[in-house]
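Hello Y.,

Per our agreement to keep a running log of every chain we model this quarter, I'm adding this entry. I've kept the format consistent with earlier entries: sequence first, then predicted structure.
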Amino acid sequence: MRSDIVPGSILHDYELSDHTGKHRKLSELQGPHPMVLVLSRGGFCPKDRRQAEGLVQLYRELEVAYCRLVTMSTDNITETSEYRAGVGAQWPFLSDPARIVQKDLNIAEYTDPLHNPMIPHTFVLEPGLVVYKIYNGYWFFGRPTVEDLRQDLRAVLKKCRPDWDITTPELKAAWQQGRKDLFYPYGKTYLQTLGEQD
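Predicted structure for the entry above:
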């Protein structure tokens, strides 16, 4: 992994084809929400398939928690679509057969010259593609568990949602005063708030 890709850095806004062939940017897929980005070896890897199967259940929670999930691999579009369907995933899968991300992040898995995949990593991203945490999944237990991701997303949501604890007297008073800008989804997004602070 490139030495500058650390917590607090901003991940490049990669644009790749999704499982349907449509070009998608990471920022478009993320919107103003936290996001889990899985960099996968591909559908050929049983470890990656097992990780994706675990994420199928978490995805239902991510949907109601206003969080996003994206998987990216070096598979071609057909393989990407089959990988997604084979594990029963409902979230976007991105295809990078040109290995743009692998080369840019310096994560070629040199121990597998046959497939030339990415070394598996899982990123937890704050809004704005800000890196919160990185997991190296070369070995399966280096990957985050569903519970690890719940804890990470809880911490990220506490940072980016001003209305995380609506029991505070200040937030209750703000609501009664009609200041709905502090409450999701009525108010400004986290990114707009950051822009105003600059």
